[in-house]
Amino acid sequence: MTGPVEAIARAVRQGEVRAVEVLAEHLGRIARTEPDVHAFNLVTSDVAGRQAEEVDRAVAEGRDPGPLAGVPVALKDLLCTRGVPTTCSSRVLEGWVPPYDATVVTRLAEAGAVFVGKTNMDEFAMGSSTEHSAFGPTRNPHDLSRVPGGSSGGSAAAVAAGFAAASLGSDTGGSIRQPAALCGVVGAKPTYGLVSRYGLVAFASSLDQIGPFALTVADAAMVLDVISGHDERDSTSLPGAQPSASSRLGRGVAGLRVGVIAELVGADGMAPDVAARVEEAAAALSAAGARVEPVSVPSVRYGLSAYYMIAPAEASSNLARYDGVRYGLRKPGADITEMYTATRSAGFGAEVKRRVMLGTYALSAGYYDAYYGKAQRVRTLIIRDFEDAYRSYDVLLSPTAPTTAFELGAKTADPLTMYLNDVCTIPSNLAGHPAVSVPFGRGTDGLPIGVQVLAPALGEPVMFQVAEALEAAAPTGGAA
Length: 480
Description:
Number of helices: 16
Structural class: alpha/beta
């Protein structure tokens, strides 16, 4: 049995199908198609088999197997998994096996999920195409000549290809939402602090968040509800009970106020077919009873520049630990300095080196205020402009990515062109706000297009409420 999370979990819980049968069907699909897609760095069939057997045992004994009973889930390969290699798609973590699970991994397991594998990604989550992986690129299941987006491209592709009913990715500047758009699935970045980052290998600690990919909006909300909540092991985790992402599903959008962000619809490089789908999405919400208007959020146009100062600076700090001493790859040298240099030169790929050097420069004496400090001030402006917009609107609407999936190799030689893929997603990370990408028709090339719903902090319930309405109104078939 394949399909949506809710359907699989319900069938397993009611004894209509066994978890091991669900797993066998997904593993069969992986065996047939994964060599072409390369969504996984590691398929964990043994781990999944044990988990599926435990779910079936619980059902047979009348015990509650959990809300995700028997649901095959894929994990981005920067989430620590006890006893299973975690590579971040980098040679520098060669041979490292975590001694503990990330909090989200524990929560999924307790909910009855079955882990089918660790997914490929841009190295240390730095990229927008999943081409910057030490283990080769992932391909888009809709067109194997195209990228799946990144950095969580393997997680998006795993769901799009039917290898898993849901998956987890991480989103630092759009790394869940952009690949979700390119692969035609739902992908959500939660409010910063709603989901624990304990056990997430850090890229940029003030921006990183873990979130779900799924086939439907309801499934994404369901998985988010399982993994969210306070964790005392994460100092940035929000305290207290938080609203359920699923709590407003089924209510429609009548009376809600929706602002369409003018600066993002008209961003440089925005493809006409993508802009057209956003206009259609706005019209659909209006027809469903929402009040829809254009809105200006002026400072979002500076988000890309601010992000590429802040994120590399934090990466420079976080990646300093990969020195060949404590874990992972070690290259010999005549002294410790030479060993550090040899290890990091051999272990890191070109994009990681580029960002570490950029971040180190931005933090260096004499340049901190001019670059990093100024970028943080821009971040504050973005937060304030969003606050102004949310005084008048319940949610905001924009494109998710400026184009449909591009061809493999088309942008790897020009980093600036690659970075522009995140122009619509980065502002939410800088503000710490939630956002979700919903499939909404196809482009003139027949490939999926995603529309993004943005909400204020802890606005997940209304965000998913609007996303569900878009899902119901989405065009089907080819280009509209």
